[in-house]
Amino acid sequence: MIPDVSQALSWLEAHPDALQGIGRGIERETLRVKPDGHLAATGHPSSFGSALTHKWITTDFAETLLEFITPVDHDIDHLLAFLRDIHRHVSHNLGEERMWPMSMPCLIEDSQQIELAQYGFSNIGKLKTLYREGLKNRYGALMQVISGVHYNFSLPQSFWRAWANVDDAESGKDAISAGYLRLIRNYYRFGWIIPYLFGASPAICSSFLQGKETALPFERTDKGMLYLPYATSLRLSDLGYTNKSQSGLGITFNNLPDYVKALKAAIKTPSQEYAKLGVKDEQGNWLQLNTNVLQIENELYAPIRPKRVTRSDENPSDALLRGGIEYIEVRSLDINPFSSIGVDENQVRFLDLFLIWCTLADAPEMSSAELQCTRTNWNRVILEGRKPGLMLGVGCGEAQHPLQDVGKTLFRDLRRVAETLDRQQGDHQYQVVCDRLVASFDDPGLTYSARFLEALKENGIVGTGLALSEQYHHQLAEERLEILTESQFEQEAIRSKDHQQEIEESDTLSFEDFLQSRR
Questions:
Q1: Dist CA 111 CA 208 (whole Å)
Q2: pTM of the complete model
């Protein structure tokens, strides 16, 4: 089931310096909650600055859903310290509110009370809020307040020069894009290992269902918690961040032009389902940006995305066509409840190893049908990944292999990548991570989901969440900043507000004309 990567690994071992300068970035989402575990009713704190233009602190779907963003970093310790500084600053300024320490939301009595993120009076700010209105009306607000961690990853130019004989990023953009697409195809085939190891949402509050029926065979505790005994990441299940209506879009990752073509087609393809909603209600209030399958490109739900930093007023797909793939965004990480900042060093180092392996391993082209077929393995791991004797399929064929065997075979390769990285850095940190994580295949009780489920069974979701949020709040609030200063946070808050005002004052079009100009 695992491709033979021995030749590529031998090449890597002969070129350890090719991995010098890996680029990494983290985006962490977290809900603000009241002391009783309910969603905060306050708006995005003004002291943080403008959610529209702040470099490090913004909001995602809702006013209460914070998102923290690090710059690109080439040092893991510095990256995590930067992220921790954002958490420290926020902890100092939340008053009685706390940051919810897990992916699945806390107590929500009425999802209609979830306030959409507000970005001011500019056309671009109003567009961002209207897009979220469309998400709410299409998929429901509850799905949108599920939190996660996104990991941005790029290989250095030295790698592409040695691996693909690329002179520079511009002339070699086609070869670099092909390499990242190869990574993505392998991620779809083998990325289920991420929820197996790090999935941390095996349970939900009964309030999350809002009285709706589900076919999942949940067990219930006397504290109102619903769980599946072998689940790893309900966040990634059909209960969470997925959209079945997108399965027929025909999007593949074999070459960049075809990917972009299919993505653009989805934005222009009318949806009968969303047409029934309409663009406005009878009172003239906006309900969504349009009635197409996707309102904008970001609405495509995917466990991984090819990315490039966009220029002003540039669509993500146009940026990809212009300059090729610059980095990839991994979107399958649950919030790590064992970390006060939602992610830890072990996860970062594992993702480095796995994404390098995905780049090196052969990855035959995939039809859209096979791409959908890979979802079968993901679903098995998501819903029953720790079940004894669980079998995974090979592609869309009949052959089945024990998850335990596949995982340990993959880790034999990952350890060779770890040895190469450690030799280049003069330590053993990647190998230590390998040795620690591979044990999870012989003992699923070591996985994040198994460990967290034990705590949830004992204290319930609300009790566990409140205890952790309080513990992490005091821990972070008592720590000193390491990378940033309070003055830098104050200056960025002021700068972001000034920038938002400049954007608002520079608008010349009505909102209707602005939307028309973007079609």
A1: 9
A2: 0.97
